[in-house]
């Protein structure tokens, strides 16, 4: 399956075009300060931070958002104490993805895994990342139910439909 959905931020009124990349992400400097602004900060998926190590910006993953939030919070505290701000540097901890029931891929700096063990590691890491024991228990029960009941309620199902070339042309004409 090809995942082709983009992540696009909601537009924010009052910002100028030059402060945004073409897909609407806010351009920020190494301190997550929005370009051409004095006190607007953006982080995570919403921003595009082009640094020498990441000239096209960081990947839109949770670790980037978490690490940028940590750095920005520390910079705000430093500011209160009149200390200098620290530029953001992304520490790539690796990637993981589930690709099916009992199937995942794990790509860490020290090990690469796939299959059942990778899937268990994915579950453990993501469960531990959730705040609060109560939330963890509820999410664990929810996952268990989905696993046992084959519950596809939150899954995206796409059925391929064939459109004849002639009909396709008509559709395009209608749109225009
Ligand atoms: C299907 C899918 C799977 C993913 N899997 C992974 C994965 O396995 N590992 C991984 O690291 N990353 C994964 N990601 C990416 C990860 O979810 C994001 O990188 C991460 O959530 C970014 O965090 P964020 O805080 O920047 O944005 P978000 O988590 O998107 O938080 C933004 C919040 O702002 C709210 N919001 C938006 N507009 C407004 C508004 N106008 N006013 C008020 N609130 C607003 C939104 O409702 C949302 O709660 C996945 C993303 C998707 C879509």
What does the model show?
The protein has 176 residues and is of the alpha+beta class. It has two domains: 92 residues, FAD/NAD(P)-binding domain (3-Layer(bba) Sandwich); 57 residues, no CATH class. It is 34% helix and 12% strand. The protein has four helices and five strands. The strands form two sheets. The protein has a three-stranded antiparallel beta sheet, covered by helices on one side. Strands 1-2 form a two-stranded parallel ribbon. The chain is extended. The model has no long low-confidence stretch (mean pLDDT 89). It binds flavin-adenine dinucleotide (FAD). Flavin-adenine dinucleotide (FAD) binds next to helix 1. The site of flavin-adenine dinucleotide (FAD) has 10 residues, from helix 1.
Set out the fold topology.
Elements: E1 26-28, E2 47-49, H1 62-80, E3 95-100, E4 103-107, E5 112-115, H2 116-128, H3 133-149, H4 165-175
Parallel strand pairs: 1-2
Antiparallel strand pairs: 3-4, 4-5
Bound molecules: flavin-adenine dinucleotide.
Produce a short descriptive summary.
This protein has 176 residues and is of the alpha+beta class.
Q: For this structure, what is the CATH homologous superfamily of the largest domain?
A: FAD/NAD(P)-binding domain
How many domain modules? 2
Strand content: 5-15%
CATH class of the largest domain: Alpha Beta
Number of helices: 4
Query: What is the chain-wise order of helices and strands?
Result: EEHEEEHHH
Mean of pLDDT: 89
Low-confidence stretches: none
Q: What is the second-level CATH architecture of the largest domain?
A: 3-Layer(bba) Sandwich
Spatial ordering of strands, largest sheet: 3-4-5
Q: Structural class, from secondary structure content?
A: alpha+beta
Dominant shape = extended
CATH fold type of the largest domain: FAD/NAD(P)-binding domain
Roughly how many Å is the radius of gyration?
A: 21 Å
Question: What is the helix fraction of residues, given as a range?
Answer: 25-40%
